[in-house]
Amino acid sequence: MAIRSIGWVVGFALVSGAVAVEAMADNGPLGLYNPLGVYVGAGLGSATLNDAQVDQFNYFDHYDGQQLGWEALVGIRPIPFLGAEAEYIDFGSTHLGYGPSYYSSGYMQQFQGGDTHDRAAAIFAVGYLPLPIPWIEPFGKLGFGQIWQHNSFGGIYEGAQAYGSDTTHPSGAAYGGGVQFHFQQLAVRAQFERISGDRSLGGWDNPSLWSVGVNWTF
User: Fold this and answer.
1) Is 88 helix (H, G, I), strand (E, B) or coil?
2) Is 56 helix (H, G, I), strand (E, B) or coil?
3) Which pTM was predicted?
């Protein structure tokens, strides 16, 4: 149901964008007709993976890496103080090193490393705070996101080398905020975003992204 809801919203946003582009083609190269305020954007920044990891061999540890992340979005802003966005966010991947070795039932056991990679789709309602300086716009955003997380891991268990992987889809509240600076159709944005995902294996998965990006309004 969550995936279907995100799909409907993303589809609506994309159709709205197509309508706006068609209207722009009919109203001159400056795109003077865009009643929904359709825009597209992208950003790049520092992501944090905050994930409790349990592998299939019952080894537990905590991923808390920082790496490069990026995002792409399409949005609408039909009124000055309220809009909506659909986003794809790639939080990047991080590596977990060797765990301690121990003996059980006469065999050595050791977790020998793993990798995790988080991607997500999210929808947001975006509220803008009006200021006397019109080209500076603080904003906050609240919505829902679903994470696609892939984990791989390996180790020595009961004296034999073993490998495993899994893919989970935690979902939960998505939120963030920041400030953007308008220059006619171009906006430069700095923002923070986080998705609070619950997962049955490991307990939590809360990736976040600090990014700087640009938006273009048609």
Assistant:
1) strand
2) coil
3) 0.77
